[in-house]
Specification:
70% helix; mainly alpha
Length: 46
């Protein structure tokens, strides 16, 4: 038995959701820098 994966995904997810799923993740260093920046903003209240 074979499944048409593209049809399955298209039937269950919108184009926007599929586009978001296919975006590669950020590098870990970039994610850490972003988290540190957010924590500093939260601490200073800006």
């Amino acid at each position: 038995m074979q499944m048409d994966i593209n049809k399955l995904l298209a039937d269950h997810y919108s184009k926007e959701e599929l586009d978001r799923i296919c975006i590669p993740p950020k590098p870990k260093l970039e994610s850490l820098v972003d988290l540190i920046a957010k924590a500093k903003k939260a601490k200073t209240g800006k």
